[in-house]
Amino acid sequence: MRDTVEKPAPAFPDHVKTAPLLVLDYALLQKKDEQECARLFDACTQLGFFYLKNAKLDATSMFESAQTFFECPVSDKLVYDMGTSGNYFGYKGLGGGVIDSKGTLDKHERYNISRDDTLGFSSSQRTHPPCILESMPDFAAYTKQSLEIIGKLLDRLSTLLGLPENTLRKLHRLSQPSGDMIRLLLAPSGTTETSEQSMGAHTDFGSAEQRWRSSGAPARKRRMGVCQAYSGLLDCELW
């Protein structure tokens, strides 16, 4: 892994308001621990977001691919611009969207990869950058492992809702075409003196989203993230 991925995040600014978030233990949820399952239900119905520890999932390859891609010249990245493809997959550059009613342009880049592409289910002829194609087996493994984690959480929620355990999981079958995606994200980190908003307020679509983040080198003042979005019920950040 490159140094820019390994460096620790800068100190969190004191002036930014925070919300109380739960840290859930995936190992306990796997064992159907009643107290931990109740905490999962509370997090989903009252907060909509939680941290999840002890979930064995490695996003290293995704961060390395993201770093390689985002360091490419803008002209190279625009070859994969989603605006020319007629769908939500591909590249979105800086200022490609509006984040508020004043018309302020966003301050982040992203590259969305269809789950169907990673698993070889896609019938489209979408092309990807070489750095993405080279890591596609890692993306596929990550997708399957990520979906299994989400599936366990959905099983617990099904039971808590009084449904058969696999009710929600069956709506996210791995073998079916899907709008799921892996999103590679690059945005300014900001500083303790500023609080730049890189994207607008929004409600994520789908059933669940897992997030990984890395601040990168402080000198670059950029942060990278990897999201796995599912087509909400869950929004969790993995440890």
Can you put this structure into words, describing what you see?
Helices cover 30% and strands 19% of the residues. It is an alpha/beta fold. The chain has eight helices and eight strands. Helix 3 packs across helix 8. Residues 1-5, 191-195, 215-224 and 229-234 have low confidence and may be disordered. The two termini are 17 Å apart. The chain has helices at residues 3-6, 26-30, 34-47, 60-70, 74-77, 115-118, 130-134, 136-160; strands spanning 23-25, 50-53, 90-92, 109-114, 181-188, 208-214, 222-230, 234-238. An eight-stranded mixed β-sheet has the order 1-2-8-6-7-5-4-3. The chain has a domain at 3-11 and 58-148 and 178-238. The radius of gyration is 18 Å and the shape is globular.
